[in-house]
Amino acid sequence: MLKKIDKVLLISWILAIISAFFVHPGKEYISYIDFRSLGILWGLMVIIQGFKENSVFEKIASALLSKVKKGWQLAAVLVFMCFVGSMLITNDVALITFVPFAIMILHNCDMEDMMIPVIVLQTIAANLGSMLTPIGNPQNLYLYGLAGMGLPQFVATMLPYSLLSAIMLFCTVIIISFKSVTPSTKNSTLVTKNFGSKIQILIYGVLFTIAILTVLRIFIPWYIFVIIVLLVILGMDYKILFRADYVLLLTFIGFFVFTGNMGRIGFISDFFRNTIDGKEFAISIILSQFISNVPATLMLSGFTTNYKELLIGVNVGGLGTLIASMASLISFKSYTKEYRENTGKYVLTFTLFNIFFLIMLVILQLIL
C-alpha cells in the first residue's frame, strides 16, 4: 500500500505529525494554511484539465509543427512550446501534453536519434519558462501571494533568468541539430484529436481569464473564483473535478502544518532563521536537489522574509537532479515507458544538460 503513496506527500505528513507532538493541534493550525494559494492552484488545475480534455494544446502544437521543414526548426518548436506554454499552463501540464507529442512526432519523422536531447531540453524549457509568471508553477503562485508582489516586480525579478534560459535553449537546439537531416515526410502525418466543444473551450477561456485576474488581485476574491469554477464545472463536466492534482494540494497542507509548528518552537525557529538568513539562494538550490523545489519552497518560506532570493533559488534549483523538479519525472517516465533500454543514456544526458544550465544561471545570479 505504501508503495502507491506519493513519497513527498508521505514525508510532508510524517513531518507534520511529528511536529504536532511538540505543538499540540489547536485553532492556530488553521492560520498555517494558505487557502488563497491552494484555492487558486486548484482552480487553475481544473481549468487546464478542461482545455486538455478539449485537445486545445494538441491543436496548437499541430498548427505550429505544420510549418516546419528542417530538423532544427522541428526541435526548436518542440522545445519552445514547452518554454512558452509552461508560463500559462504550468510546467507539469506542458510536459504531460508536449513530451508524448514530441515522442510521436520524432518517431514518425525518423529522427529518433534526437529523441533524448529534445525531450531533455523540453524538460529544462518547461522548468525554466515557468519561472517567469506567477502561474507557471506551484512555488511561484505560493510565493507571489506570500510576498504580496506586484506582477511587474515579479516579472522583472525573473526576466534576466528567463532571457538567458531562452538564449541557451536556442543555442543548444542549434548544436544538437547540427547533424540532423530534414524530417522524413513519409511517416510525419500529425495524428491529433479534433477540437472538443467550442462552447466549453470558450467557457474555460473565460474561467482562465478570471483566474488571472484573481492571481493579480483584480476585482475577484479567491473564494469567489473557487465557487465560480466549482459551480460551472459541476454543471458542464463534473468529471474534470477529479483530475486536479489533489496529492500536490495535500502535500502543501502537510508542509504548511510542519513549517507552522516549527515557527512556534523558539530555538528551532531561531536556528533555521539564522542558518538560512542571507543564504536563501544557495540553500534553496541545494535543498531542491534532494526533496524537489516545491517542498523546498514550503519549508524555507517559514523561516525567511527574503522572498526574492528564495523565488530565484527554488526556480533555478529545479535544475540539477532528476527530482529537483518533480515535473522532470513526467518526461523521464514518458520516455522510458517507450524506450526502457535507453534509461541510463537518458539520465546521463539529462544530468549533463541540467548541470550546464544550472551553472550558467548561478553565474548570472553572482553577476547580478
How does this structure look, described?
The radius of gyration is 21 Å and the shape is globular. The mean pLDDT is 89. It contains 18 helices and no strands. With 368 residues, the protein is an all-alpha fold.
Which secondary structure elements does this structure contain, and how are they paired or packed?
Blueprint: H1 7-22, H2 28-32, H3 35-53, H4 56-65, H5 71-89, H6 91-108, H7 115-129, H8 138-147, H9 151-176, H10 198-215, H11 222-237, H12 246-263, H13 266-276, H14 280-291, H15 293-300, H16 307-316, H17 328-338, H18 343-367
Helix pairs in contact: 1-12, 3-8, 3-10, 3-11, 5-6, 5-7, 5-9, 6-7, 6-17, 7-9, 7-18, 8-15, 8-16, 9-18, 10-11, 12-15, 14-15, 14-16, 15-16
Radius of gyration: 21 Å
**What is the SS-derived class?**
mainly alpha
Name the assembly state: single chain
**SSE succession:** HHHHHHHHHHHHHHHHHH
- Total strand count, please? 0
* Shape annotation: globular
Share in β-strands: under 5%
**Helicity range:** over 70%
Mean pLDDT: 89
* Sheet having the most strands: none
Number of helical runs? 18
First-last Cα distance? 48 Å
Q: Which residues sit in consecutive blocks of at least 5 with pLDDT less than 50?
A: none
Key terms:
368 residues; mainly alpha; 18 helices; 0% strand
Summarize the structure.
By secondary structure, the protein is mainly alpha-helical. It has 18 helices and no strands.
